[in-house]
Design brief:
Helix content: 55-70%
Number of helices: 8
Number of strands: 0
Bound molecules: zinc ion
Strand content: under 5%
Length: about 210
Protein backbone atom coordinates (compact mmCIF):
# COMPACT_ATOMS: atom_id res chain seq x y z
CA UNK A 1 0.00 0.00 0.00
CA UNK A 2 1.50 3.34 -0.97
CA UNK A 3 1.62 5.84 1.82
CA UNK A 4 -0.07 8.51 -0.28
CA UNK A 5 -3.07 8.15 -2.61
CA UNK A 6 -1.68 10.56 -5.16
CA UNK A 7 1.35 12.61 -6.00
CA UNK A 8 -0.61 15.72 -5.14
CA UNK A 9 -1.40 14.40 -1.72
CA UNK A 10 2.28 13.63 -1.20
CA UNK A 11 3.35 17.08 -2.39
CA UNK A 12 0.83 18.81 -0.14
CA UNK A 13 1.96 16.80 2.87
CA UNK A 14 5.62 17.24 2.00
CA UNK A 15 5.25 21.02 1.82
CA UNK A 16 3.94 21.08 5.38
CA UNK A 17 7.00 19.25 6.72
CA UNK A 18 10.20 20.84 7.96
CA UNK A 19 13.44 20.76 5.96
CA UNK A 20 15.65 17.79 6.87
CA UNK A 21 18.67 19.94 7.63
CA UNK A 22 19.14 20.27 11.36
CA UNK A 23 18.38 23.76 12.58
CA UNK A 24 16.57 24.82 9.40
CA UNK A 25 12.98 25.76 10.11
CA UNK A 26 11.88 26.31 6.51
CA UNK A 27 9.39 23.98 4.88
CA UNK A 28 10.30 21.40 2.28
CA UNK A 29 9.90 22.15 -1.38
CA UNK A 30 8.48 19.92 -4.13
CA UNK A 31 9.42 16.26 -3.68
CA UNK A 32 12.57 17.15 -1.80
CA UNK A 33 13.42 16.43 1.82
CA UNK A 34 14.86 19.92 1.92
CA UNK A 35 13.72 23.51 1.63
CA UNK A 36 14.50 25.35 -1.61
CA UNK A 37 17.80 26.77 -0.38
CA UNK A 38 19.18 23.45 0.88
CA UNK A 39 17.89 21.57 -2.17
CA UNK A 40 19.79 24.00 -4.40
CA UNK A 41 22.96 23.53 -2.35
CA UNK A 42 22.63 19.75 -2.57
CA UNK A 43 22.22 20.03 -6.34
CA UNK A 44 25.17 22.35 -6.90
CA UNK A 45 27.59 21.12 -4.25
CA UNK A 46 26.60 17.52 -3.59
CA UNK A 47 25.41 18.13 -0.02
CA UNK A 48 22.60 20.30 1.43
CA UNK A 49 24.97 22.12 3.78
CA UNK A 50 27.86 22.47 1.35
CA UNK A 51 28.99 25.60 -0.45
CA UNK A 52 31.90 27.29 -2.15
CA UNK A 53 35.23 27.23 -0.27
CA UNK A 54 37.54 30.14 -0.95
CA UNK A 55 41.20 29.33 -1.55
CA UNK A 56 42.39 31.42 1.42
CA UNK A 57 40.75 28.79 3.66
CA UNK A 58 43.32 26.25 2.47
CA UNK A 59 46.25 28.57 1.80
CA UNK A 60 48.52 26.59 4.18
CA UNK A 61 47.84 23.44 2.21
CA UNK A 62 48.46 25.19 -1.12
CA UNK A 63 51.78 26.44 0.24
CA UNK A 64 52.77 22.97 1.45
CA UNK A 65 52.03 21.26 -1.86
CA UNK A 66 53.60 24.09 -3.87
CA UNK A 67 56.89 23.44 -2.04
CA UNK A 68 56.53 19.71 -2.63
CA UNK A 69 55.76 20.15 -6.34
CA UNK A 70 58.66 22.57 -6.81
CA UNK A 71 61.00 20.00 -5.30
CA UNK A 72 59.58 17.35 -7.61
CA UNK A 73 59.13 19.49 -10.71
CA UNK A 74 60.84 16.90 -12.93
CA UNK A 75 59.09 13.91 -11.38
CA UNK A 76 57.18 11.91 -13.98
CA UNK A 77 53.93 12.02 -12.01
CA UNK A 78 54.03 15.79 -11.60
CA UNK A 79 54.87 16.27 -15.27
CA UNK A 80 51.92 14.08 -16.14
CA UNK A 81 49.58 16.22 -14.04
CA UNK A 82 50.80 19.48 -15.56
CA UNK A 83 50.59 18.00 -19.07
CA UNK A 84 47.07 16.75 -18.49
CA UNK A 85 45.85 20.17 -17.38
CA UNK A 86 47.69 21.88 -20.25
CA UNK A 87 46.17 19.42 -22.74
CA UNK A 88 42.64 20.01 -21.45
CA UNK A 89 43.07 23.77 -21.80
CA UNK A 90 44.65 23.55 -25.25
CA UNK A 91 42.11 21.03 -26.58
CA UNK A 92 39.22 23.19 -25.40
CA UNK A 93 40.76 26.30 -26.96
CA UNK A 94 41.00 24.44 -30.28
CA UNK A 95 37.28 23.73 -30.09
CA UNK A 96 37.60 20.13 -28.90
CA UNK A 97 34.39 18.46 -27.90
CA UNK A 98 34.90 18.29 -24.15
CA UNK A 99 32.52 19.14 -21.34
CA UNK A 100 32.96 22.62 -19.99
CA UNK A 101 35.24 23.51 -22.90
CA UNK A 102 34.30 27.20 -22.58
CA UNK A 103 35.84 27.29 -19.10
CA UNK A 104 38.97 25.32 -19.96
CA UNK A 105 39.47 27.53 -23.03
CA UNK A 106 39.08 30.63 -20.84
CA UNK A 107 42.09 29.42 -18.79
CA UNK A 108 44.07 28.77 -21.96
CA UNK A 109 43.32 32.25 -23.29
CA UNK A 110 44.70 33.76 -20.11
CA UNK A 111 47.80 31.57 -20.24
CA UNK A 112 47.16 29.93 -16.91
CA UNK A 113 50.21 28.08 -15.62
CA UNK A 114 49.19 24.40 -15.35
CA UNK A 115 51.65 23.95 -12.45
CA UNK A 116 49.87 26.63 -10.44
CA UNK A 117 46.50 25.10 -11.15
CA UNK A 118 47.86 21.70 -10.11
CA UNK A 119 49.10 23.19 -6.81
CA UNK A 120 45.71 24.77 -6.17
CA UNK A 121 43.86 21.51 -6.80
CA UNK A 122 46.32 19.47 -4.73
CA UNK A 123 45.99 22.03 -1.90
CA UNK A 124 42.23 21.61 -2.01
CA UNK A 125 42.51 17.83 -1.89
CA UNK A 126 45.03 17.98 0.97
CA UNK A 127 42.68 20.25 2.88
CA UNK A 128 39.91 17.70 2.29
CA UNK A 129 42.12 14.93 3.74
CA UNK A 130 42.78 17.00 6.83
CA UNK A 131 39.14 18.00 7.29
CA UNK A 132 38.37 14.53 8.66
CA UNK A 133 35.23 15.49 10.49
CA UNK A 134 33.80 17.05 7.35
CA UNK A 135 33.27 20.46 8.84
CA UNK A 136 33.88 22.28 5.59
CA UNK A 137 34.14 19.75 2.76
CA UNK A 138 31.13 17.56 3.38
CA UNK A 139 31.76 14.50 1.20
CA UNK A 140 33.42 13.29 -2.00
CA UNK A 141 30.73 14.86 -4.20
CA UNK A 142 31.42 18.19 -2.55
CA UNK A 143 35.14 17.77 -3.25
CA UNK A 144 34.32 16.97 -6.88
CA UNK A 145 32.17 20.10 -7.28
CA UNK A 146 34.84 22.20 -5.56
CA UNK A 147 37.49 20.81 -7.90
CA UNK A 148 35.38 21.91 -10.88
CA UNK A 149 34.76 25.27 -9.26
CA UNK A 150 38.50 25.71 -8.72
CA UNK A 151 39.28 25.03 -12.38
CA UNK A 152 36.46 27.20 -13.70
CA UNK A 153 37.25 30.20 -11.53
CA UNK A 154 41.04 29.93 -11.62
CA UNK A 155 41.30 32.84 -14.07
CA UNK A 156 39.17 35.93 -14.62
CA UNK A 157 35.72 35.04 -15.88
CA UNK A 158 36.15 37.01 -19.11
CA UNK A 159 32.74 37.39 -20.69
CA UNK A 160 31.34 34.47 -18.70
CA UNK A 161 28.29 35.63 -16.81
CA UNK A 162 26.76 32.42 -15.63
CA UNK A 163 27.99 28.93 -14.78
CA UNK A 164 25.27 26.27 -14.72
CA UNK A 165 25.59 24.45 -11.36
CA UNK A 166 26.00 21.02 -12.94
CA UNK A 167 29.15 22.19 -14.75
CA UNK A 168 31.06 22.27 -11.44
CA UNK A 169 30.34 18.60 -11.02
CA UNK A 170 31.15 17.75 -14.63
CA UNK A 171 34.48 19.55 -14.69
CA UNK A 172 35.23 18.15 -11.22
CA UNK A 173 34.58 14.66 -12.57
CA UNK A 174 37.06 15.29 -15.37
CA UNK A 175 39.67 16.31 -12.79
CA UNK A 176 38.94 13.26 -10.63
CA UNK A 177 39.16 10.89 -13.58
CA UNK A 178 42.11 12.62 -15.22
CA UNK A 179 44.44 13.24 -12.25
CA UNK A 180 42.62 11.95 -9.12
CA UNK A 181 45.27 9.28 -8.33
CA UNK A 182 48.01 11.88 -8.69
CA UNK A 183 46.24 14.30 -6.35
CA UNK A 184 45.92 11.51 -3.77
CA UNK A 185 49.61 10.67 -4.23
CA UNK A 186 50.55 14.33 -3.59
CA UNK A 187 48.39 14.41 -0.44
CA UNK A 188 50.00 11.24 0.92
CA UNK A 189 53.51 12.55 0.30
CA UNK A 190 52.63 15.84 1.93
CA UNK A 191 51.27 14.06 4.98
CA UNK A 192 54.44 11.97 5.24
CA UNK A 193 56.49 15.17 5.36
CA UNK A 194 54.20 16.51 8.07
CA UNK A 195 54.63 13.30 10.07
CA UNK A 196 58.41 13.44 9.71
CA UNK A 197 58.42 17.00 11.07
CA UNK A 198 56.19 16.03 13.98
CA UNK A 199 58.43 13.05 14.84
CA UNK A 200 61.56 15.14 14.95
CA UNK A 201 59.79 17.70 17.14
CA UNK A 202 58.67 15.05 19.59
CA UNK A 203 62.21 13.64 19.67
CA UNK A 204 63.43 17.04 20.83
CA UNK A 205 60.87 17.08 23.60
CA UNK A 206 61.68 13.70 25.10
CA UNK A 207 62.52 13.90 28.79
CA UNK A 208 66.21 13.99 29.53
CA UNK A 209 67.86 11.70 32.04
CA UNK A 210 68.07 13.64 35.30
CA UNK A 211 69.18 10.79 37.62
CA UNK A 212 72.23 11.62 39.69
CA UNK A 213 72.39 15.22 38.55
ZN1 LIG B 1 16.51 23.98 4.77
Amino acid sequence: MPKYKSLNEFLTTNKSLQCNVRGCDRKRTGKSNYCGRHRARAYTWGHPEAGAVKSHVYSDEIEAVTRLLAKNADHEAIQYGRDWLAKMMAAAAKGGNIRGSMYWANLHNQEVDPGELLSRLAGLWLFDQKDEIRRIIKNDNHLTALSGNTVIRFAKMNGIKYVPPKIYRQVGDQVRQGIGPLLINICRSSEKIELRKRNSRSKMLQALDLDGL
